[in-house]
């Protein structure tokens, strides 16, 4: 599976054929370095561990420092494991950039969404206010409403949509199209929006649904 780590730099737009406006997200992808190669004989599966973005040496613990030294690469802030097919040619210390992808590739993009803190049901679950807004109705307009907890079962059912932590969770947007790859600036333009705030780390990899279809055709 092809994949790369990057930084979300924000959104812009480009113009396609006949002046069609295409909204895109700018991702500064790589350069990434292979820090570790996992093999079937030792680990039971084939994969590579990729490092991205330099990190100060005094912030690295000894086990990680030894791994980076063995790979002959500078300490990296982000590490991500990608599964690869048997017979791959990746080696420890290899460098790869955004050119692992091409225009027209379909990818899945994963990142951590913006955190909104502890929020109510209206913001978190898109519920509506209740009751008239005039005097005498009490401060219940933005409350969660009935729990449905009658004498039977005398409890709140699991997965009840209530107030709580909103955002700050890993989300993957599938089947996004790459519309431009700029190898000079090491930038990928992805059609549409992707999760995360500007400056957040994102993972761009081949679409799993596309790979599944290709494997079905081979069978």
Structure description:
The structure is a single chain. With 219 residues, the chain is mainly beta. A hairpin with a 4-residue loop joins strand 10 and strand 11. The strands form three sheets. A six-stranded antiparallel barrel has the order 1-2-11-10-7-12. The two termini are 18 Å apart. It is 14% helix and 40% strand.
Tell me what portion of residues adopts beta-strand conformation.
35-45%
Unreliable spans: none
The total strand number stands at: 12
Shape: extended
**What structural class is derived from the secondary structure elements?**
mainly beta
Determine the number of helices (DSSP H or I, runs of at least 4 residues): 4
Helix content: 10-25%
The largest sheet is: 6 strands, antiparallel, barrel
**Mean pLDDT value:** 88
Strand order of the largest sheet: 1-2-11-10-7-12
Report how far the terminal alpha carbons are from each other.
Answer: 18 Å
H-E string:
EEEHEHEEEEHEEEEH
Radius of gyration: 23 Å
Fill in the keyword field for this structure.
extended, 40% strand, single chain, 219 residues, mainly beta
Offer a concise description of the structure.
This protein is mainly beta and 219 residues long.
List the helices and strands and how they pair.
Elements: E1 3-15, E2 21-29, E3 32-38, H1 40-43, E4 47-54, H2 62-71, E5 76-83, E6 95-96, E7 106-112, E8 115-119, H3 121-125, E9 164-167, E10 170-182, E11 187-191, E12 201-206, H4 208-218
Antiparallel strand pairs: 1-2, 1-12, 2-11, 3-4, 3-6, 4-5, 7-10, 7-12, 8-9, 10-11
